[in-house]
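Readers outside the structure-tokenisation community will struggle with the description of the input data as it stands. Showing the layout once, in full, would remove most of the difficulty. For illustration, here is how one protein appears when written out as sequence plus structure tokens:
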Amino acid sequence: MTNETLKFLYDKKIPIVHAQMHHIKEVFPNKDITYTLIDDREDIGAFLNKHITTSIPPRVTYNFVLFNEFLECKTPFKPIPSTANLFDTQWRLHHSNKTPPCYPLIKHSLAT
């Protein structure tokens, strides 16, 4: 995977997934939620599965489903349950300031 590909994944997918999960949890604070991202790129799924763990709000499970070229949906990775105890009420501020956890600190790997 090139640095440019990583930069795209870093800049676009994690913040979108982070914002959607937190918005849904904010709307339904007392519910157990399974957030499922369906994408046609397994490399995006692998990247998110590796870096999304710290971004999952309490009582939310993140799941990635691969929609392949044969029009099939497969789950190449196990769902990831939240390890958070408290909801991050400042999640919008993280997006405004482009700070973790929605923008994980992986910039160093992009510089090489």
Notes: The first strand starts at residue 33 and ends at 39. Residues 106-112 have pLDDT under 50 and may be disordered. Residues 55 and 101 are 5 Å apart (CA to CA). The chain has four helices and four strands.
